[in-house]
UniProtKB/TrEMBL annotation, chain A:
Keywords: Membrane, Transmembrane, Transmembrane helix. This is SpoVA protein. The chain crosses the membrane at residues 30-49, 56-73, 85-114. InterPro entries: Spore_V_AE, SpoVA. The keyword Membrane applies. The keyword Kinase does not apply.
UniProtKB/TrEMBL annotation, chain B:
Pfam families: SpoVAD. NCBIfam families: PRK08304.1, PRK12404.1, spore_V_AD. It comes from the Bacteria. It comes from Pelotomaculum propionicicum. This is Stage V sporulation protein AD. One of its GO terms (molecular function) is acyltransferase activity.
């Protein structure tokens, strides 16, 4: 059942992203989807509506970009609890540190191996 | 002193029509596999064309086309009075760098995808004006260099709408001469820049169609000719949608040329090649003219051609700032002799 919901929710989020591009004749690009999804994830999470989705679908909800927005929002909320208002600024990135560092490290490794020319 | 060689508002005519004594076309793999593949002088089966980057590949295409055109006419660089060339890249680097490898006095041109026709019109004027005996004209484009500059990095994998066209990877070159054997250029109609408020860089056909239609009407009015004086009227790179739009605009003005109207962007690829609305870029009209169309004039299939090089005059910055895109079309009359 865990796999089923991960597939359905993760897939549905991707369908939304694809439709945003298809229905605007690709004027809405993947970069727009990225920004929209992270922002939307953070807003939905702030209203407490994303955590139930994570409970239901696991990686199906955390891996898509909305999951990153959720992580930032929850990190900021926890940061405020622990460090006051300054935590609103530091909490988000602290919570997302593993993902951000992984992106930098693997991006660096890929850049060493390949020569981007496009 | 009056204007001696101009008819009407936009058309010049040549007293001693300059001769196209040789042409050359060099293309990339996709163009080589297309329906006109056999009409090109050389096909590279890799888009890098044995170079390190796509920009260098585009320069290689242009240099090879220029050299091939000279070689076919048995001429050397010193025999040429002027070289006129251009391309789509910032500061027309493909043309500038190619010119640095050839020691010919050089005038760089930017007419976007209409550059080949702009160059041939100017070259013919230089010759008939008595300023040159032989002029080398060329233009190039490359799918990957144009895509990166005008739209998105290719790695981003942005999907293309059906109105999008595929920039031709290729270069064409022409040697125009005062005398010699080959087809001649008898008239040139210089286009006006027309902006109908289209702002989508993924739909260039709609940008250029009004300019192409305007130039065709001007040409017919300036010369007093009926459209069927020509065996074929073709545009540079309107693509399937742009051609339909031009057809419609011409009909609105009372000209139905659809029985002999085509477009280089439609001719160069087949439907099975998944290029959406057809080919585009400086290379599109250049290689189709230098390959297929000149061949058709030489084998007698056509006697008189009216070709309109079409260009979309935007920059990446102007598009990002939301400006609408102006278009242009320059027409040439090419006749078999």
């Amino acid at each position: 059942m865990a796999f089923f919901w991960a597939f359905v929710i993760g897939g549905a989020l991707c369908v939304i992203g694809q439709l945003l591009m298809d229905l605007t004749s690709y004027k809405f690009t993947s970069a727009h989807v990225l920004v929209t999804f992270v922002t939307a994830g953070a807003i939905i999470s702030a209203f407490g509506l994303y955590q139930p989705l994570v409970k239901l679908a696991g990686a199906g909800a955390t891996v898509p970009l909305t999951g990153f927005g959720h992580l930032l929002a929850q990190g900021a909320l926890n940061g405020v609890k622990e460090n006051g208002i300054l935590g609103a600024f530091s909490g988000g990135v602290t919570a997302a540190a593993a993902g951000i560092t992984a992106a930098v490290v693997f991006g660096y490794l890929a850049a060493l191996a390949f020569k981007p020319r496009g | 002193m009056g204007v001696f060689k101009k008819n009407g508002s936009q058309t010049v005519w040549f007293e001693n029509p300059p001769v196209i004594i040789s042409t050359a076309s060099v293309v990339g793999p996709q163009e080589g596999e297309g329906p006109l593949g056999k009409t090109f002088d050389k096909v590279f089966y890799d888009t890098y064309c044995d170079e390190e980057t796509w920009e260098k590949a585009e320069q290689r295409l242009m240099l090879e086309a220029m050299k091939k055109a000279l070689q076919k006419a048995n001429l050397q660089e010193k025999d040429i009075d002027f070289m006129l060339a251009g391309d789509l890249l910032n500061q027309i680097v493909s043309a500038n760098f190619t010119a640095s490898a050839l020691s010919i006095p050089f005038l760089g041109l930017y007419g976007a995808c209409s550059t080949m026709y702009e160059g041939m019109a100017l070259g013919a004027m230089l010759i008939d004006g008595g300023f040159a005996a032989r002029v080398l004209v060329g233009a190039s484009s490359h799918y990957s260099t144009a895509e990166r500059q005008f739209r998105f990095p290719t790695e981003l994998g942005v999907q293309r709408p059906m109105t999008a066209q595929w920039t031709v990877t290729g270069a064409g070159a022409v040697v125009l001469a005062e005398k010699g054997s080959g087809p001649v250029i008898t008239h040139a109609t210089i286009g006006r820049v027309i902006d109908m408020g289209q702002a989508d860089p993924q739909d260039m056909g709609a940008v250029m169609a009004p300019a192409a239609a305007d130039t065709i009407v001007r040409h017919l009015q300036d010369t007093g000719r009926a459209y069927d004086y020509y065996d074929l009227i073709y545009t540079g790179d309107l693509g399937t949608y742009g051609k339909k739009l031009a057809d419609h605009l011409l009909r609105q003005q009372g000209y139905d040329i659809s029985d002999r109207f085509t477009d280089c962007g439609i001719l160069i690829y087949s439907g099975a090649q998944d290029v959406h609305a057809g080919g585009s870029g400086c290379g599109c009209s250049a290689v189709v003219t230098c390959g297929y169309l000149i061949e058709k004039l030489k084998d007698g299939s056509y006697k008189r051609l009216l070709g309109i090089g079409t260009g979309s005059l935007h920059s990446p910055c102007s598009v990002q700032q939301g400006s609408t895109i102006p278009g242009i079309g320059h027409a040439l009359v090419i006749e078999a002799r």
